[in-house]
Amino acid sequence: MKKYIFISLLSLLPFTFYSCNDWLNDPTPGVTKLSDFFTSGATAVQSVNAAYQPMMWEYNSTYFPEWFIGDVVSDDALKGGQSIGDMADVYDMENFKTNTNNSYLLDFYRAQYQGIGRCNLVLQEVPKMHTDTLMDTRLQNRLIGEAKFLRAMYYFRLVRIFGGIPKIDFVIDSSNKWAQPRASADDIYKFITEDLEDAQKKLWRKSEYPSADLGRATKGAAQAMLLKTYLYMHDYAKAKEWGDSIIESNAKYNEYELVPKYRDNFTLEGENGRESVFEIQYMEDPTSDYGEGDGFTRGTFSVILMRSRSSLLGGGWGFNKPTQNLYDEYENNDPRRDETILNPTDEQIQTPEQEIYLHSSRYLNKKYAMMNEDGSYYKLTHASRGPINIKVIRYADVLLMYAEASCETSNLDRAKWALELVRGRARQGNSNILPSFPYGNYNDNQDDLRKAIRHERRVELGMEGHRWFDICRWGIAKEVMDAYKATENSEVQNEMAPFIKGKHELFPIPAEEINLNPMTQNSGY
């Protein structure tokens, strides 16, 4: 790294007329140029590592994990917490009363662009670097692939919440570059697929990573995200093509499978396992970052946020409470229901006025409950830092997305094959439950197969943050939410504003962002 040494003006006097302009343009002491920083493979790896971090962030001025939208805004969950006023911004979102000053949305929006900015820096600098003893050409290409995958993930998180957003694929190193217009949602989805298609060419297969690097983006993760993105674009032929790609690759390399026990997906021991396609990595962190903001912890807040407020059930803050509507969606004897939803006994409810939210006392049972094998609750090393990862994509999700793409392209046998794999695992060896399609009220036709796949997504992936985004991309959010409202108790109904089709599928661009970068607001806000 170059060091700039300050030399006194007096010593330069003999050369004043010759070198004055050069002296005035010398770099400021203590300032490092990018070309001085990106000089080694270790720097390249560290810069990519930094690009992963904003995906972990869940707290700045407020808590903003994505499940507050994916679960709570949908028919799967109520906000919960100590009262209606606890996390008031999320209360507004779940009841379709959101305004443009919502602090949750502002923090979420900015965290994603922090990630995008870090990816853009990697993609500007790492391709220009020379290889060395740590970074050969193959690793260099993988790092570029990781940055493109991550940039696609950040944009994917933004576009399905806000619709069209500014597309920034360069480093903003000047105030002249700050103001950027909104791109259309279609343009953003196209940009995502371009990044992912290039990423999947450069990324390694999961089995090629050393154990210390498990959790990094892989070829399979990029293929799965392509499958998912094309479903959002309603290009079912392309979605099926990428579904075929990951399934055919898996047949050859045997990297993914449904783990025998459903609950094993939601344990510390099951992290980055056979069913994991991509997950956000967390670790135990005994430090506190109250008041510090983004990036001051390596643990997740989600454990403490979702655990029951009863000390007998983990002693958390009681957010994200499963609805009766979700509970009733499960078929008789489906073991996934009780793995997902906890119904506390009267004895386990210590403070009813805090633990029963709008007549609901249920809690999320899988994942964030983090129970030990003996039934006790995992003790956190810090009261609000959980080590459990967030599984963004499981292989069960891939199979159900593939079933959907196959159904929509009239490849019904392939759709039934993928659906049956998921239902077969859920049976846990009990052939008397969860019959294969067609079953119950489903007839053997495309329309009913579509309904069965949508049902299976809800119960297999229940409370994993998918539901709201699914019903929006299917174009049925109003129908679903109106029907859900009709099933809820009067207290919940009285809190919910009417769902406006064409407005409430998206959330408003934060007002502070529009003040900084004037752009059009989403319709109705």
Task: Explain what this protein looks like in three dimensions.
The chain is mainly alpha-helical and 525 residues long. Among the domains are: 218-281 and 389-474, Serine Threonine Protein Phosphatase 5, Tetratricopeptide repeat (Alpha Horseshoe); 301-388, no CATH class. Helix content is 44%, strand content 4%. The chain contains 21 helices and six strands. The chain has helices at residues 16-24, 34-37, 41-52, 67-70, 88-94, 103-125, 137-162, 185-202, 219-232, 236-253, 302-306, 324-329, 335-340, 352-355, 395-408, 412-427, 446-460, 467-473, 477-487, 490-495, 511-516; strands at 77-80, 276-280, 319-322, 341-342, 363-364, 390-394. Residues 1-20 have low confidence and may be disordered.
Beta-strand residue fraction: under 5%
Q: What's the architecture of the domain at 218-281 and 389-474, going by CATH?
A: Alpha Horseshoe
Could you tell me how far the N terminus lies from the C terminus, measured between alpha carbons in angstroms? 50 Å
Mean pLDDT: 92
Profile the largest sheet.
2 strands, antiparallel
Strand/helix succession = HHHHEHHHHHHEHEHHEHEEHHHHHHH
Low-confidence stretches: 1-20
* CATH level-3 fold name of the domain at 218-281 and 389-474: Serine Threonine Protein Phosphatase 5, Tetratricopeptide repeat
**Radius of gyration computed on alpha carbons:** 25 Å
The helix tally amounts to 21
**Helix proportion:** 40-55%
- What quaternary form is this? single chain
- CATH class descriptor of the domain at 218-281 and 389-474: Mainly Alpha
- Order of strands, widest sheet: 1-3
